[in-house]
């Protein structure tokens, strides 16, 4: 953990030196949703490959850069392309960007993802406000020695997704006339999609959506004291819900299709954060 904190410090110092200041909100953009970063005014682009000690994203559809600037009046740092556990990084490594947000002074983070719908009332193309999560990865980014200056040994996860932001998102969706689902996100390690049996289990355990990201980032956000707003784009029904195979292409296509609503929602949340 000490080694990770040193890497965070080095990377944050480098990013600060590029001119990132007065940061307010972090944006973590999921598969097919990275385009939001293209709306940032006066963008300062920092490629992951230039940042000392920083991991590099390997998944198609993920750009691998930070974009800093102003979006709807807020100073944001968008993570265009995130790190996944299934790429072989440790949980500590994939959550370095969340720690960097804190080090740069952000108070909140909007965490987004593409997810499979477990709740049978959902349809591909739905947006889901995340209200809670189930860590089914079998790992945890806080395992190891704890630095009490950073956060508590046993963080409370009762309100991991900020309750005020949930009220805000509900109201914003209503005002914009955008239908938004709500539910529990269950994080698997991936990279396999789940089996139909696993999805039936997930439903029994209380999940509304499943995916391969977000859970570790939200744990670290909670640890360091960043307020979280979470949005899933339901790109497909999870395995076995419909009698058809899953593929990554579908995930990218559906997230592109709902992009407009997603964008409107993110812009308005940012404004009111
Ligand atoms: N399962 C896991 N991750 C996903 C899915 C899914 O069905 N769809 C998009 N990301």
Written overview of the protein:
Helix 1 packs across helix 3 (96-103) and helix 4 (163-176) packs across helix 8. By secondary structure, the protein is of the alpha/beta class. The protein has one domain: Rossmann fold (3-Layer(aba) Sandwich), CATH 3.40.50.1580. The protein has helices spanning 2-17, 91-94, 96-103, 163-176, 196-205, 215-224, 248-257, 259-272, and strands at residues 25-29, 41-47, 65-71, 74-80, 108-117, 127-135, 180-187, 209-211, 227-237. The mean pLDDT is 94. It has eight helices and nine strands. 32% of the residues lie in helices and 25% in strands. The chain has a five-stranded mixed beta barrel, surrounded by four helices. The radius of gyration is 17 Å and the shape is globular. It binds hypoxanthine. Hypoxanthine (HPA) is lined by residues 114-116, 193-194, 210-212, 235-236, 238, 246, 251.
